[in-house]
């Protein structure tokens, strides 16, 4: 279902992937610095989640400014929260590369403000989180991650040129929330692996994301 999400005096293009049964939980998903919501990995993940009972709303927000993308992401969260057709118990924020930075920033800002005491945001999924620029390991983009107060899943390639394995493991070890890293063996930042098809890699990513979401939803229901 295509929708337009109000954002200031503009609209963001978005698409709902809706499960057959009424969903209880949703995922908001966005793309990296290049591309849009029709990036194959996002389309694949959205379809997989919807087929497993989780509502997925993916959106496009162009612009290479993380603060701008964060504002856009917040607008989408508000939109879904107030959406009459889907009364969700909670939502997970997810993004690929720069989109995951924006998602992390949204969660940090909301947890530090007064408006997220309702626990609507249940967790964060970072696909190919860009922890540093290529070959610039000294400047880590970890400030939002260290202040996040909800569970986090990282899915990254072990050969990601923007996320050195040991550096991410060090950052994650400092995080004070439930967290998990799933390494895609030999995958680069674009999740490409020599000798494996893109579909094969996406199946692995999708299954990992879904099983983590399911675990976290169950943990909260106990």
Automatic annotation (TrEMBL):
This is TEX30 protein. The gene is Tex30. It comes from Loxia curvirostra. PANTHER family: TESTIS DEVELOPMENT PROTEIN PRTD, TESTIS-EXPRESSED PROTEIN 30. SUPFAM superfamilies: alpha/beta-Hydrolases. Signal peptide: none annotated. It comes from the Eukaryota. Residues 27-212 form the KANL3/Tex30 alpha/beta hydrolase-like domain. It holds the Pfam family Abhydrolase_11. InterPro entries: AB_hydrolase_fold, KANL3/Tex30_Abhydrolase, NSL3/Tex30.
């Amino acid at each position: 279902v295509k929708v337009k999400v109000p954002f200031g005096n503009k609209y963001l293009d978005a698409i709902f992937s809706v499960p057959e049964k009424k969903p209880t939980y949703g995922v908001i998903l966005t793309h990296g610095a290049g591309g849009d919501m029709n990036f194959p990995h996002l389309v694949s993940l959205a379809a997989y989640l919807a087929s497993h009972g989780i509502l997925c709303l993916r959106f496009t927000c162009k612009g290479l400014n993380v603060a701008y993308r964060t504002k856009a992401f917040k607008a989408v969260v508000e939109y879904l929260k107030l959406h009459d057709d889907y009364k969700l118990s909670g939502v997970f924020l997810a993004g690929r590369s720069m989109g995951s930075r924006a998602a992390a920033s949204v969660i940090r800002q909301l947890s530090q403000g007064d408006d997220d005491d309702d626990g609507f945001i249940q967790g964060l999924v970072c696909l190919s989180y860009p922890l540093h620029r290529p070959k610039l390991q000294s400047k880590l983009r970890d400030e939002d991650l260290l202040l996040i107060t909800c569970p986090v899943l990282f899915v990254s390639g072990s050969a990601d040129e923007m996320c050195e394995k040991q550096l991410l493991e060090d950052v994650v070890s400092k995080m004070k929330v439930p967290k998990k890293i799933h390494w895609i063996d030999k995958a680069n930042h674009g999740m490409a692996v020599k000798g494996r098809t893109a579909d094969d890699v996406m199946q692995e990513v999708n299954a990992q994301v879904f099983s983590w979401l399911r675990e976290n939803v169950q943990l909260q229901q106990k």
